[in-house]
Amino acid sequence: MPLIFVVILIAGYVKNVKVYDVFVENAREGLNTVLGILTSLIGLMVAIGVFRASGALDVIIYAAKPIASLLGIPSEALPLAFLRPISGSASLALVSDIMKNFGPDSFIGRVVSTMMGSTETIFYTLTVYYGSVGIKNIRHTLTAALIAEFVSVLVSVWACAFIFGT
Amino acid sequence: MLNYVWMGMLLIGFIIGGLNGRLEEVTQAAFNSSKSAVELSIGLIGVLCLWTGLMGVAEKSGLLNKLAYLVSPIIRLLFPQIPKKSPAIGAIVMNMAANFFGLGNAATPLGLKAMSELQKHNTVKDTASDSMIMFLILNASAIQLVPATIIALRASAGSTNPAEVIVPIWMASVAAATTGIIAVKLLGKKTDSHKRKMRLKNRRNNC
Questions:
Q1: What is the ipTM metric for this complex?
Q2: Chain B residue closest to A155 (CA)?
Q3: CA–CA separation, B129 vs A135, rounded Å?
């Protein structure tokens, strides 16, 4: 991590980049991202909060237990596997909810972090990219994307178990 | 789609909460969640700005271009249908590099540029070409040097080492990308042989 800092700063210095000015200018992008998702985050976290408080989430988690345990996935993480390809901000809200309940450094906390970081919001990418050039028949794109997503979920669990222990 | 999911979650929540006699808690949860969404966002701002700023420096200093140069042979290998001198290659490479550095705002326009270049080589305009499918799959697996959002999220949740998930994230996204590439190639072959069979059938019928 510190290595990335040093390499980037030295590369910038060597190329005569005004490192501080460029940093400040680009940091605004982070601010825009957060402001951009704030309202959807409020909406979605309220939905998840209501869903959890009513006991409905427990029903789903309980129902998912057999499939989850078959694949070795903690059953609390399974709803995220379904949500991740559909909505980025909804999965962010769910991950934050899970971390609050189990802690970011718990096994489940690490697994959902890894799941969140290792795939994209496939449906969004498909819609925007194909929509931009008017493609209607996407052939096997979705199948391949979902297979890849499934693998990333499994590897997330295994990698976390292997590196951190359960 | 999300409209239904969102409405469904709220309605089911309130109905089941009512049946369980937990309406009080459910209402409280709605207010608390909206508050914690704002707290979460404020917690995210610092770390996320730090990374996007730093990655901006990386881009300006030419690290992005250097990386693009390094991966271009791999890109050519994955997209055999694209002519060598096509501007599509450059756009794809820059899009992958921007994704790698987590420059989402830069990646999307470059990706759209790549799509419009790929569309020029596409023979059936309303159907995705093999190259387009490969490009989207590579975009879906999100290989990132520093997954800034998730690190920021973990930091704001009070993790003692927010960046410790970088290695498993790399492993999972590389595995996803590899599987995706294999899946695209295999599924593509299947549809190819299907097309060939159909063509043979048609020819036989014509005789």
A1: 0.84
A2: B172
A3: 9
The rounded distance, in Å, linking the Cα atoms of A93 and B41 is 10
Residue B187 C-alpha, separation from nearest chain A C-alpha, in angstroms: 7
Q: How many CB atoms lie within 10 A of CB A8?
A: 23
Residues of B in contact with A145 (CB under 8 A): 136-137, 140, 180
| pTM of the predicted structure, to 2 decimals | 0.83
**Beta pairing partners, A137:** B127
Give the residue numbers spanning the domain of A142: 2-164
Q: What is the pLDDT of residues B85-121, one digit of tens each?
A: 788 888 898 888 888 888 777 788 889 889 999 999 9
pLDDT tens for each residue of B14-28: 999 999 888 999 999
Find the closest chain B residue to A132 by CA distance. Answer: B112
Would you list the domain boundaries of chain B?
61-206
Name the residue of chain B whose CA is nearest to A137's CA. B127
Asked if A8 and B61 touch (Cβ cutoff 8 Å), the reply is yes
Q: How many domains does chain A have?
A: 1
